[in-house]
Write a structure and sequence with these properties.
The chain has 56 residues and is mostly helical. The protein contains 2 helices and no strands.
Length: 56
Amino acid sequence: MTAATNAERQAALKARRIAAGLVPIHLWSHAADVQAIRDHAAKLARRRERQERSKA
């Protein structure tokens, strides 16, 4: 087995994220807002999980 190059590992990571339905976003924010942004993203993820479970 050959070792993957950094570029190959990054390409595989990108492919897994796309397959999971994620899209890239680059965001500049004030340092004081970072935790609030992360908290909101987690809230949205929980809501998405609840909606998926209710569909099943």
